[in-house]
């Protein structure tokens, strides 16, 4: 398996010094950008302007997670803002495969995510259309929640399907990921790990990125 991917969520960064905060995670593989509209989820974060500012400041892969209604209407905007991968929620669209094709038409990666209460089984047959699946191990919308270990059953189902079909689709997990939980997620089959407060709340965020990557690699 490839080296684990650590994706700090800038939602947990200090927005009064965002550029400096990004510089503190220079060792990160990706940066995770949480977009919330106050409708699909009950919180409001930021939009394409901040995304573009982050893209202007770093060459890091931007993993843009759209927790919004009608995400298909915002694809062009977030591509222009610098997204390298756009992840949308299956609960917010009628045809996930069509939205993935819309994203791919821009030459970037496409992923889907699902709430903890949404089953993964109906989506397994369409995995070849996606570069990534983001499993939420908390309810989307707020940072700092506790990890839901029962969501690892989805990860195991995905790992089995992906491996049996020889697909390149990555499994990402988001929610409550820290040094206390990342080994469980890695052992279940995750490739990429979103960590917010565990990274930006650390005394040395870059060192914490390295620590999380090492823990995940050892648990595989």
Explain this structure.
This protein has 220 residues and is α/β, with parallel strands linked by helices. It has a single domain, classed as TIM Barrel (Alpha-Beta Barrel). Helices cover 33% and strands 20% of the residues. It has 8 helices and 8 strands. It has an 8-stranded parallel beta sheet with strand order 1-8-7-6-5-4-3-2. Helix 3 (75-81) links the parallel strand 3 (61-67) and strand 4. Helix 2 (48-57) runs parallel beside helix 3 (75-81) and helix 6 packs parallel to helix 8. The chain is globular, with a radius of gyration of 16 Å. The protein starts with a strand and ends with a helix.
Overview features:
eight-stranded parallel sheet; 8 helices; 33% helix; TIM Barrel; 220 residues; alpha/beta
Outline:
It is built from eight helices and eight strands; from the N terminus they run E-H-E-H-E-H-E-H-E-E-H-E-H-E-H-H. It is an alpha/beta fold.
């Amino acid at each position: 398996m490839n080296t684990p991917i650590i994706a700090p969520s800038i939602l947990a960064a200090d927005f009064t010094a965002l550029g400096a905060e990004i510089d503190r995670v220079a060792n990160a593989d990706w940066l995770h950008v949480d977009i919330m509209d106050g409708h699909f989820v009950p919180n409001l974060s930021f939009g394409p302007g901040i995304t573009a500012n982050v893209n202007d400041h770093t060459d890091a892969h931007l993993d843009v997670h759209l927790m919004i209604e009608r995400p298909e209407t915002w694809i062009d905007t977030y591509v222009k803002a610098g997204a390298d991968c756009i992840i949308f929620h299956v609960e917010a669209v009628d045809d996930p495969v069509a939205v993935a094709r819309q994203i791919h038409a821009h030459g970037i990666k496409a992923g889907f995510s699902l709430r903890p209460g949404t089953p993964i089984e109906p989506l397994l047959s369409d995995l070849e259309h996606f570069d990534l699946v983001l499993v939420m191990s908390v309810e989307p919308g707020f940072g700092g929640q506790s990890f839901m270990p029962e969501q690892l059953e989805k990860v195991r189902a995905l790992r089995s399907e992906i491996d049996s079909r020889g697909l390149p689709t990555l499994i990402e997990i988001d929610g409550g990921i820290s040094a206390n939980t990342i080994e469980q997620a890695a052992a279940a089959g995750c490739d990429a790990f979103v960590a917010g407060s565990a990274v930006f709340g650390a005394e040395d965020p870059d060192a914490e990125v390295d620590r999380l990557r090492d823990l995940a690699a050892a648990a595989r």
